[in-house]
Design brief:
The complex is a heterodimer of chains A (308) and B (51).
Chain A (H helix, E strand, L loop, with lengths): L7 E2 L2 E2 L8 H7 L2 H17 L6 H25 L1 H6 L15 H23 L1 H22 L6 H5 L1 H4 L1 H10 L4 H24 L1 H7 L4 H4 L2 H18 L2 H4 L5 H23 L6 H20 L11
Antiparallel strand pairs in A: 1-2
Helix pairs in contact in A: 2-3, 2-9, 3-5, 3-6, 3-9, 5-6, 6-9, 9-10, 10-13, 10-16, 13-15, 15-16
Chain B lengths: L4 H34 L6 H6 L1
The chains are: A mainly alpha (308), B mainly alpha (51).
Chain lengths: 308, 51
Amino acid sequence: MMSDITYSSDEGSLAASRQASAGDYFALLKPRVMSLVLFTGLIGVVVAPGGIHPAMAVIALICIAVGAGASGAMNMWFDADIDAVMERTRQRPIPEGRIAPHEALTFGLFLSAASVFTMGLLVNLAAAGLLAFTIFFYVVVYTMWLKRLTVQNIVIGGAAGAFPPVIGWAAVTGGLELPAWTMFLLIFLWTPPHFWALALFRSGDYAQAGVPMLPVVRGEKSTRRQIVGYSFLMLAASFAPLFFGIGGIAYLAGAVLLGAGFLFIAFMLLREQEGTYRWAGRLFGFSIFYLFALFALLPFGPALMQAA
Amino acid sequence: MAMTPEDEKRRHGRNRAIALALAAFVILIFVGSVVKMTNGVIPQMDVEIGR
């Protein structure tokens, strides 16, 4: 039942309760994260060998999007105390008292079950199983366990965001073949520089909330060095799909040019004076463009190399 | 507790959203089932069971 229960944090009772709107529930799904997940899932469907009925592809993508949204809702349920303290997340529906935590949990659990069962019933069990595992990984392994425990939280937790193209692939082939995991690897190695760039200029927020992000625990200098290190690994991983018959000349050109741009910004960030975050902000913004653009190039043109 | 006109509006919005989501879900299951039957994944009574 949707109620108007007020959420209270350690800082005391927050905003006055009011009826939640449909938009508040939509916000629980983290629509911006969902759009990236949906897009990479779509590319997984498109580049997978074999065919799938267009209606089934749409159903698979809806399931991926809803499953990702459900994970977001459960993340907001568990992290409501952190969200209430952080500037960036203070306006979310639970800290503002528009949605009660247990309602967010119920909403997330219901959508998780609906998306996994629909995927299993209509698409295939491999995609459904991986979708269920992704939700479990994001909610239990990352949100409940790693996020507050270790400085490696987003390195390991980043896997959750890397599964969608593999789920899309599995929706078509019914299997979890090796080529799909090259897309996983790229997102997995992209996540640390992306999040640490954000964490650099939001480190005060994370420190206040007690989240052991890299800049809070190891300091700025170490974070900037690790961003460069992971950027190199990510750049190397961006060529991996080519060896498995995914991506043509346009993708290769994109991987080189966009990767060079990514590395340039990462190096500028490394050289930047401590306490200034101009290049951190640029890297955060560019990293989103980088992933969108690179994945958008994957389906174009004949494959440069034949699958092994 | 009495609801304000603003609260009423939000509740109507939620109800509409739930109705739309339910309708979308029904359509999704229907279309998915038709496609599976067409592809022979789900047996059609008249063709494969015989009637």
